[in-house]
Backbone:
């Protein structure tokens, strides 16, 4: 079978995942900004802090996969709005940790309802078993990402 000379974008999995992720993120950002005054990056940080409170920006970057600049800008916006507070890390005075405020927790709970409805709509055409299979397959693909990113082609 000859080597392809172009991508079949209807079957190229990285493009399919990226397109869907971009469309979902754009839609979420528009919705969350309109109704809550925060974008999808701020929402991801609020959700992360609900799961793991009193953490560093570095930890958020690792857990969510966002770059430091985006996290830093979003944390500044959230702090200015009163949704988070930062404090000097008790274990390392050179770092700050971030926590949800009562206002941030209330905002999280309001956005969560909308996020879960968006997910329900996304998965609405799948059975419970198909959702389980999808989650399993996505987890298996995610486990391959570091292996994929290690690939460094050598020119012949």
Residues:
């Amino acid at each position: 079978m000859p080597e392809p000379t172009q991508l079949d974008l209807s079957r190229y999995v990285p493009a399919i995942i990226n397109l869907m992720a971009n469309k979902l993120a754009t839609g979420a950002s528009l919705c969350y900004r309109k109704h809550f005054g925060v974008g999808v990056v701020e929402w991801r940080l609020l959700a992360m802090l609900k799961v793991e409170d009193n953490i560093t920006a570095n930890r958020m970057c690792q857990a969510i996969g966002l770059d430091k600049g985006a996290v830093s800008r979003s944390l500044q916006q959230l702090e200015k709005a009163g949704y988070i507070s930062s404090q000097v890390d008790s274990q390392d005075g050179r770092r700050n940790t971030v926590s949800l405020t009562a206002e941030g927790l209330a905002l999280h709970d309001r956005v969560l309802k909308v996020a879960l409805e968006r997910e329900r709509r996304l998965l609405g055409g799948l059975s419970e078993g198909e959702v389980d299979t999808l989650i399993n397959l996505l987890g298996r693909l995610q486990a391959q990402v570091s292996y994929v990113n290690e690939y460094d082609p050598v020119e012949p």
